[in-house]
User: Fold these one by one.
Assistant:
Number 1:
Amino acid sequence: MAQLDTRQKLEILADAAKYDASCASSGTAKRNSRDGKGLGSTEGMGICHAYAPDGRCISLLKILLTNSCIFDCHYCINRKSSNVRRARFTADEVVKLTIAFYKRNYIEGLFLSSGIIRSSNYTMEQMVEVARALREDHHFRGYIHLKTIPDADPELVRLAGLYADRVSINVELPTAGGLKRLAPEKDGARIEGAMADVKSSIIDTRDAAKRYKSAPRFAPAGQSTQMIVGADAATDRDIVSRASTLYDRFQLRRVYYSAFSPIPDASAVLPLQRPPLMREHRLYQSDWLMRFYEYQPHEVVAAADDATGMLPLDIDPKLAWALKFRQHFPVDVNRAPRELLLRVPGLGVKAVNGILASRRWRRLRLDDVARLTVSVAKLRPFIVTEDWRPVILSDRADLKTLVVPKKKKEQLELFAA
């Protein structure tokens, strides 16, 4: 490997980290002030935006320790057989970069992942050393997210959780068959075993903290995972079902979905085209329904097409469910319980809370509901108010055409040049 300076390594390893969706980045136009005009820049390599556990939007240094890897997963651009430029940070270089960026107020934390070098244990040791040095040697109080390696020794994963705010272990693909076909060197049982160990450690330290003030914290922001969408034949029904199982079994904070992106020198077993990015968006919406709108997994799955198992791309899953199960509507906003109000297309959690608070004092009219939402037009077929009852509208065969938003411009590619 040719000798590279720190800036060259940062350029390579920050770019390689962009495919990890569990720390989402925000895109914008490139601007700088090198000509002496203006202030600031949007070109900080490796800096991305993510959300802290308390809801704050924070800036993180998002990099790989190395993009070299001994594994040969078909879908990964950093796989062993890939013809990409390689680079590697030492643990000390990552620590120095993080501190330097933090002191300049560029970032508020670190997201660190890595390819596998030498062995899973060796790589995990290097990542843990980064977190340890930041916390113990430099007394770093910023946010740290470590992407752990399921094949590593459980004690190393435990140490990662003691230093990091959040740890994540990728399940990679929604189905066992897809993982075996596209990542034969990875073991689904070992991945789930590592996630179960992290869950147990989180629970144990929480229980200890209730009894002892000095009890150590273990991944206080919980654990997350990521699934690649569109690399195998898994349907949206498969993905939603898998995500709900992961939430239940391992008490995950988030499941991230990453649309498969074709890579150079791709394997013949991979699809030639990427899936629509709208598919990824619909999966995030379905995830939101389960986490915040009290939908059961089987209800979200029911919104998918019966024949293909795919969620519709032209409308969101909540509207798709409402159109498919019109017998549950219209809903009387002055009488319906919270769980039914949350199923009304166009009513968010904040709007439902507003309705529940307001109707304690008076009966709500259509104008009252309109003040709580962005557009009342989408709501009309699905609600009853003091002065509105959609008797004819809700029974129309062409209802979908009335509530589906107008087609927007073609969506841009995720990593277009």
Number 2:
Amino acid sequence: MTSVQVDKQHDGSEAAEKAPEEGYQRGLGNRQIQMIAIGGAIGTGLFLGAGKAISMAGPSIILAYAIVGLVIFFIMRALGELLMYRPVSGSFSEYGREFLGPFIGFVTGWTYWLFWVVTGITEVTAAATYVQYWNKGIPQWAAALVFTVALFGINLISVKIFGELEFWFSMVKVTAIIGMILIGLGVITLGFSDAGDTASFANLWSHGGFFPKGIGGTLMTLQIVMFAFLAVELVGVTAGEATNPKKVLPKAINTVPWRIGLFYIGALIIILSVVSWTVFKPGVSPFVAAFQQIGLPAGAGIVNFVVLTAALSSANSGMYSTGRMLRDLALNGQGPKFFTRLSKNGLPTWGTGVSVAMMLFGVYINYQWPGEAFNYVVSFATISGMWAWIVILASQLRYRAKANRGELPQSEFKAPGSPYTSVFALAFIAMVIVMMGVDPDARISLYAAPVWALILGVGYLCIKRRDAANGLTAGTAQDAPAKSTEG
């Protein structure tokens, strides 16, 4: 359903009551949605990126994950309120278009598309490097090509196959973390393994205290921690294909607190108790370091397999979301019309195919010129991911205000504490962006944003000129079919 159709629906017209569905098949069940939600919060940011954060903050990184986890919960509950008001696959792009204007919807849709294209490039490339752990003779480009083609093929079959693959990808990550927690608890309480003599919860405060680098060190890790949670909002994109969105999505969103508590905070408490924080270094997985300290010879191989799974899961999610975002943009007159087409299985194959082509080109660029230019593009993914969160929160605030005035129906899944929680989350994100400007390593993320904003501004002006010539409002649906099929 496009934004124009929503306006008609709110007018109460007969046509609105018969407004067509988006055309997707609702093939994602409760089991798959739950695991997609869990997997979206567990990625390489935890398995690899946590090493740098630990070295910067020590045990206080646990507090950083707890604070950011709370903010993420506020964001997800804001998204949940919007999803129960109108569950669509365009998700935050659609909400931005409806509540903040067509330009914001345009920016959000294309920015989120680029976020997943860039993420897909980096994750497929990373997966190819992980394969070399077992066989260095496999060329990196060949492995990247095989992974990309295989995942693309899966995304062309049916949304149910996509959901099933994500279920098992997430299951691997969840099993690995739970296994690590249980082994670590055994080492701490029973004293077995090579780390048995030194493993203790006292490691959380015995080496320079809980804040060994001071409060400043902890604050500087907030940006790293925020990046680890990117893609948690992906569950919103599944709304148009969930079998029972108004029942399944609230359950998935309400699991956010215990997911963060168990998989992030719980895992870090155990790891930092088994191994002193002084052992961890940037670029080294804390899970690998913990396994080595315990003395499990297969530990490094296990973690490498889990990280490979996490990378493939992220790339798979990227292919899924890019096609839906491009189709949403096209349905609202903000993208090429051919992106509206669906396959016989209800899949946006044109949008997914173009996105995968971009990913393949990016893999080639990364292989040929893995220099600073590519790093600029990769770093942009972080700021673009947070833009989606900003739009979610701002849209929810506008929606709640309209609903309270009786202009829109109330959501069945209100965000608790709103508007205060949403305002707090927005202020927190603003603080993190300021800190990114202070940190030389993260500042690069902000340089690409104005360039992308300029490109989008020019693109939107072209759309306005085109629509003005056709007598339309900029960025509105141009009689694009809600459901199209191709042979």
